[in-house]
Amino acid sequence: MHNETFYTKKNITDFKIALISDIHYYSDYNIKIFQNIIKQIKKNKPDYITVAGDILDNSNTNDLTKLKNFFIELSNISPTIVITGNHDEKKGIMHNWSYYKNIDLIKMLNNIPNVYFLQDKKITINNVTFYGFNPSFPYYEKEYETYSSFCNEISKINPQLEDKNYNVLLIHSPINIYKYLAQNKNHNLNKSDLILSGHMHNGCLPFIISHPLNKIFHTSRGLISPNRTLFPKYAQGRIYERDGFVYEGITKLSHSTKMFHYFDFLFRKRVEFLSIKKDKSTT
What we know:
This protein is α/β, with parallel strands linked by helices. It has helices spanning about 30-45, 65-75, 105-110, 135-140, 145-155, 175-185, 205-215; strands at about 5-10, 15-20, 50, 80-85, 90-95, 95-100, 115, 120-125, 130-135, 165-170, 195, 235-240, 245, 270-280. It has a single domain (about 5-280), classed as Metallo-dependent phosphatases (Purple Acid Phosphatase, chain A, domain 2, 4-Layer Sandwich), CATH 3.60.21.
């Protein structure tokens, strides 16, 4: 675990966020993984739990029973804020995906008390605002996350974020958001104090390599991204140029990778805990 601390000049009460993403749930999902995640979260007692997309591995997954029980357990610990990712809207097999929206997943998320499903909307709890931005299926699977297609997607939203609140942006993929905000200072998402993502699976680097790289050299680069870009800039760990974090994923090798999925047990299932603290030098 990174257990990062972010400081803010805003007048807030210190709080802690648990961050997970890329569950890649399927019908035969190993329930022990959920039990491990719950155990870590209960031990660390976060004020908020965030899930940054790719809840499902294949969007036509029908049996959501174990997944629903997992989200109920999360919600019983702390407010749970959820967005979807590219896998949550696609069905089929590798390199041959088609669009499919799982209505049962959406209903499930909307009907569990203390779970807040954010689809291009916000929720404010105790002066902390969470906003979820969900780019479309074509952005991921037709345009392969090009910068021009991202500009088209983000131009459609106009979130109203207040300066007095601590604003947390959840977006599944970090590939274009940092560049866009740097180049578009007037966009309302520039009021985000912290950006949380998943999607990148540590840039295909093992934690034992990526973590020292991130901490010692202040780099978040990886080896390869899901859109097959080599040495992606925002692939893992803390983002230093602007407060952000890219989670490595609960599942590193998804069920849709077939044979490779059997090696996923080699990777530890870590929850990231991010502490947000008031900068004492401002008082």
